[in-house]
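= Paired protein data =
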Amino acid sequence: MAAQDMLRIATWNAELSRTGPGVLLRDILSGEDAEVLFAVDHILKTTPDVLVLTGIDTDFEGHTARALAVALTQAGVAYPYVFSGISNAGLFTGRDLDKDGRLGQAKDAQSYGDFHGQGGLAVLSRLPIAADDIIDFSTLLWRDVPDVRLPDNFYDAGDLDVLRLSSTNHWNVPVMWGETSIHMLAFYATTPAFDGDEDRNGLRNADEVALWRHYLDGRLDTPAPDIPFVVIGDANLDPQDGEGRIEEMQALLTDPRLQDPQPRSAYAKSIANETHTGDAAFDTADWDDPMPGNLRVDYVLPSADLKVIDAGVSWSSASNSDGALFRHGLVWVDIARQ
């Protein structure tokens, strides 16, 4: 098989986030930030052809993502094609969304964030990105999602007039694989925790995950994507353990239009939580024990027409149980045309 016939697609929540706008960009440009240097080194160990980064601070013009791509190029592997738009996190809504009687707090933003663009998405690619064909669902209002699940008697009409579904972004980013476009259906969903009995985060997380099935069903205002495609990113939802509507993740993983390569790692198996029911080898995040513990939340799910060659979860050597720099593993899948 020729090298160009196979692609390595990956996602990683590197949690490259700072306390204010432009701070991460400054740290990348300095060339001396330890976390950034470790992140670059870890990406180069797997060298994906297409990498969807989650948890990275974003800006309107994509300067931060491009700076990271330059740092990777300087370290030895070029990522000449980059797409990043500012995330919904921290975007002021003018509404008291957490109902605490105060406006302008982090929990009153489109999703939790100390500033607009904190902890969003970026796509870095060694293959051309068809920028003119990108579809952005990030402004879709939550109330307008098919089969919407809204918390009972929590949000008022004014809230729902502005509240978006995407806590960060939902994108269809086509990447040119020879003469074929392979569509990266990229997202980073909210955590299903840190709310109250109304379960507003759990419901929103479920609808963020479900959006891709609605898209594949042709139920949105834009036609369903052509094959091949890959659902990719951080769903913040495990199909067996932890908080959230796990049935929604199960529905996506068993959708016949997709395939689950079940990437695994020995490291994840070694830190298994005894009370969890899912196979710990599939876990992609190493959180505090016993709650939430270690969970599978990061996914690369190729469309059923593609051939899966190999898959795995790569953990940084900088990750450990004592103040780990990186709590997530990098999930990679090698694919080829059938």
